[in-house]
Amino acid sequence: MNDLAPLLTPEGRALLDEVRGTAPADELAVATRLRRDHPAPLVSAAFAQARLRQRAVAKFGTEDAHRMFFTPHGVEQSTRASVAAYRAARLTELGVTSVADLCCGIGGDAIALARAGIRVLAVDRDPATAATARANADALGLAGLIEVREADVTEVDTSGHDAVFVDPARRGGRGRIFDPEAYSPPLSWAVAAARTARVAALKIAPGVPHEAVPADAEAEWISDHGDVKEAVLWFGTEPGAVRATLLPGPRALRGAGLPDPPVRPLGRYLYEPDGAVIRAHLVADVAAELDGGLLDATIAYVTADTLRPTPYATAYEITDQLPFNVKKLKALLRERGVGVLTVKKRGSAVEPEELRRKVKPQGPNAATVFLTRVAGAPTMLIGAPAAA
Predict the structure, then answer these.
(1) Burial of 141 per CB tally in 10 Å (0-12, 13-18, 19+)
(2) Before 250, cis peptide (omega within 30)?
(3) pTM beyond 0.90
(4) pLDDT digits 0-9 by tens, 308-322
């Protein structure tokens, strides 16, 4: 059942409340009972929506997720609430009071914008998606600030809004799309639309090539609890600026245009930069802050002799440096009674699970092993998170 309308009726909403929290093992029995008093398609739709809501908790939190409505694609592609709230706050700081949200999806960004007090025109060409966005605005009491319009975004007049936000579709029938010009709509169209507004933000994949960033845009990479979520091209802010923003916080590292860090021998500490820092090509800025260098010119691990707390990288104290050799690693871990082994890799073809199976860690202690290269040579570094 693709039509949300039956779920928005009193009967549909009551069913959603009744099936909430049903364990997968109990679904068949509960569904059989409910079908005695309700249409079978409606019961199936309620269970499908309940499962989508459960999946959405990770992005929207329990309270919102169980009030909102979702499509399978919408759950997958929607912006995490914390990221959307950060972007809405930044637009507010820029003096934005109205936004044309193009390719709005199920309305995740529109919700964050409206909660920040911004008036939103939310546009999507897919009827089911637009209906879902409209239902979400109603469900969260934001219909007064969010106008949902089913239309082709390329035909929408955005001139009456302070800002434009575009979130092009980056998945097609064959999966993820890597070429920005294959987005729907293409990145070139989104950039042109952005340039018509006083302020604009374009959400793009974090793996976008830096050479694809227009010269008049600011490029920002955003991570949440260490996971890189997206990149954003900003117009009307700081042309040419590059920044990495870490949530919660937010903490923002603005690039200073530094040259690549020097390669140096392993120090006492190894720093693993946040993914947003790496994607933004700001490892040199972190290395300068730590008075450190790289173990290898092509790998984003920073090493230094002193421990300096930084939000932009996780520090590890290294106790051993060995040429890559599984037998030697297994013997060392057995000798130290390591049963909890964290495996990290960068510049190595070895899979962490494969290595764990081979070394068979046993014992009460924990350790971290880094599979990497040091001056081009395959190397194992053993250590543990550094005490603050």
Answers:
(1) exposed
(2) yes
(3) yes
(4) 999 999 999 999 999
